[in-house]
Amino acid sequence: MSTPVALIKRVLKTTPAAQGIKRCVSQLVAQLRFQQEFMRFKSLASRSATQRFTVRWQDRYPCLGDKTAITGFDHHYIYHTAWAARIVAQTRPVRHVDISSSLYFCALVSAFIPVQFYEYRPADLHLGNLSSELADLLALPFANASINSLSCMHVVEHIGLGRYGDPLDPDGDLKAIAELKRVLANGGSLLFVVPVGKPKIMFNAHRIYSYSQIASAFADLQLQQFALITDNGQEGLIENAPTEMADAQTYGCGCFWFTRRD
């Protein structure tokens, strides 16, 4: 005969709502542990010689998901911005122009290179060596072949899907690529990042590209480097990854460094 505990476990395994029940139970347990830790900490604080802070229940700010064995992070956004920053540090342009990439990337790079950041939805960002202005990637406010150092990372896959208030356009990404190539100067660098894997549109979030789709779109530029961040990112940044590995991903991150031939 099954014990009550065994019966409950069996029900949790076979019930469609089991995962939801488990989450609720886990949250309840976490709340109880938090309350116990609060009371224990308050007791310790009351016996402290310094008495530097008041410890009040009404001031609590529960952070219940941070007791992990390792520090987690978004592999794609940590690695692709680190990849790009290292290239900018290597090439040392007089200025760098970024189109809608990570604000963290632009803010950090502006510590050693003047950065001009442009966005369809401008960011109210105030830092020395960094400007933030309005621009539409389908009509960039630059003359032909005028930008020597340019980046557009995790952006083009969104263009034309309406996610950010832009007009619907199935070919919006190709038009954006054409604009990037139009403004890139002779001898200039373009840092370009998009999701790679099996080609598809995940409407209205993003597109996923095969390696050959990107290579074809930029066939008139010189590929200096390709780096891959895999689906789970456990391998870190894989430089010179084989195209077959890129195409085998579900949602990999493809980092392309292109230059325009003089």
Structure description:
With 262 residues, this protein is of the alpha/beta class. The chain has 2 domains: 4-59, no CATH class; 75-259, Rossmann fold (3-Layer(aba) Sandwich), CATH 3.40.50. It is built from 7 helices and 10 strands. It has helices at residues 4-14, 18-46, 75-91, 103-109, 172-183, 211-217, 243-247; strands spanning 96-99, 115-119, 130-134, 147-153, 184-196, 200-202, 206-208, 222-229, 238-239, 252-259. An 8-stranded mixed beta sheet has the order 3-2-1-4-5-10-8-9. A two-stranded antiparallel sheet has the order 6-7. A hairpin with an 8-residue loop joins β8 and β9 (238-239). α1 packs across α2 and α3 packs parallel to α4. 30% of the residues are buried. The mean pLDDT is 94.
List key phrases describing it:
262 residues, alpha/beta, Rossmann fold, eight-stranded mixed β-sheet, 22% strand
